[in-house]
Amino acid sequence: MGGLAALAREAGHRVTGCDTGVYPPMSDQLRALGIELVEGYSADPLAQPGFQPDMFVVGNVVSRAHLADGSPKFPLMEAILDRGLPYTSGPQWLAEHVLQGRHVLAVAGTHGKTTTTAMLTWILEQAGLQPGFLVGGVPLNFGVSARLGQGNTFVIEADEYDTAFFDKRSKFVHYRPRTAILNNLEFDHADIFDDLAAIERQFHHLVRTVPSQGRVVVNAAEDSLQRVLAQGCWSEQVFFGGTPGQAGFTAEGEPNDFKVLKSGQVVARVQWDISGIHNQRNALAAIAAAEHVGVAPALAAEALASFQNVKRRMEVRGVLPLGNGIITVYDDFAHHPTAIHTTVDGLRRQLNGAGKSSERILAIFEPRSNTMKLGTMTAQLPWSLEQADLAFCHAGGLDWDASAALAPMGERAQVADNLDQLLTQVKAAARPGDHLLCMSNGGFGGIHARLLDILRD
Question: What is the pLDDT of residue 423?
Fold first, then answer.
């Protein structure tokens, strides 16, 4: 919604908004754009003289829920409905006012959407296409999460989460892409989907909207995506991520230096500072999608050499000297067990490759997403943290027993009921050479700065 607000502001509209607990980097971006932010969902703004918006754009956090005392959780929404004021959803507004008439490149998948969207946008930018984009994060190459762009292309992060309380379709069915990346697909969003088959059905709704002259770029290693395609596909299918020599785009070499093969023939080479096999696959997907709008794989690979990733994706927040070594503090958006496993494993591989296999990884995380709060995937947590030397879980507000879930890790795992306790645990355990990896899809109480402060002290 912050990125959408930025697009509306760039288009010349006066934009205000309300939310709770907005945190960086989005809060910083909104402030820089001069977008007024009201804390909370009170109907008070409607009483202000001259406050008559032409449209209320409603995000999917808004519902018709009521609090324990019977009062509405979102009074502003109730007032909008009672007064018959105009409202729409974010995806619908985008479809009608930004995406119509443009070549939309949509990036869908359970994991890697933000990073892959940023990669693809940077490739098109370097190729001179001046794309518009909307990314669910802040790409470091651009410094903003969204812009209208000057060219015909628009790259958008395509989320499968529902659109709004009045439109329960996945967001991405509104975008009508000509190029669609299906990066991966596994069970998530347990608060709105009953099972994996329900999500696969939504992905197929997306596939249905791609025209016959369009391209669907698909992860070859995902059985779930094969089931999606089996329901019907009317567009060109290009696969990525199989073994070298297979059809489609594959990679040969290490994640930070690899050849790009198309149907077994070398067409490019990527050399960059980004780590992780998952990012290697993200790059293949972006290269395959960019080719559909005329960008040669070699040019795409050259652009990726200067790709700087996205804020909160293995972002180093501080490096402190301690004793005879250093401690490094990272911030990462990982929250699903698979994403946590991928992030920790990627850091472990990076350290091993740099001859630092003896240095420890301390995984510090909070199960904050709706899926994790429901306790749907607690059994996967020990697996997700298997490459971490120590794990610290912020369990405040959970309805399930984090200690029991992490019991298979034995003394390698500690659980805290609040942030102060968590910081005390980490401080007692940290030593020179450690890598402190903080993972959350929220602000995590500013833990990164607080960790750096207590370690500095």
Answer: 93
Query: CB neighbours of 243 closer than 8 A, spacing ≥ 6?
Result: 250
Q: Say whether both 52 and 106 belong to one domain.
A: no
What angle (nearest 5°) sits at the alpha carbon of residue 445, between those of residues 440 and 446?
90
**Category of 330 on φ-ψ map: left (φ > 0), alpha (ψ -120 to 50) or beta:** beta
Same domain, 167 and 290: yes
Which of 270, 304, 338 is at the close of a domain? Answer: 304
Per residue in 12-37, pLDDT tens? Answer: 999 999 998 777 777 887 888 889 88
Q: How many domains does the chain have?
A: 3
Regarding whether 225 and 116 lie in a shared domain, the answer is yes
SS3 266: strand
Same domain, 379 and 451: yes
In this structure, is the dihedral angle defined by the CA atoms of residues 142, 147, 151 and 156, taken in order, positive or negative? positive
Whether 310 is in a domain gets the answer no
Angle, in degrees to the nearest 10, between helices 337-353 and 277-291: 110
pTM (two decimals) = 0.76
Residue 203: domain span:
91-304
- pLDDT of 188 > 70? The answer is no
DSSP letters, 109-172, are: -SSSHHHHHHHHHHHHHHTT---EEE-SS-BTTTSSSEE--SSSEEEEE---SEEETTEEEEGG
Mean pLDDT throughout 442-456?
A: 86
C-alpha 208: how far from chain center: 24
Distance between CA atoms of residues 246 and 252, nearest Å: 12
User: Which of 32, 54, 85 is the C-terminal boundary of a domain?
Assistant: 85
Sign of CA dihedral 109, 159, 102, 232: positive
Query: In this model, does residue 371 exceed pLDDT 70?
Result: no
How are beta strands 146-147 and 132-134 bridged, if at all?
antiparallel
Place of tokens 């399930």: 400
Report if residue 121 sits inside a domain: yes
Whether the CB-CB separation of 162 and 168 falls below 8 Å is answered with: yes
CATH no. for residue 191?
3.40.1190.10
Question: What is the token pair recorded at 191?
Answer: 């608060």
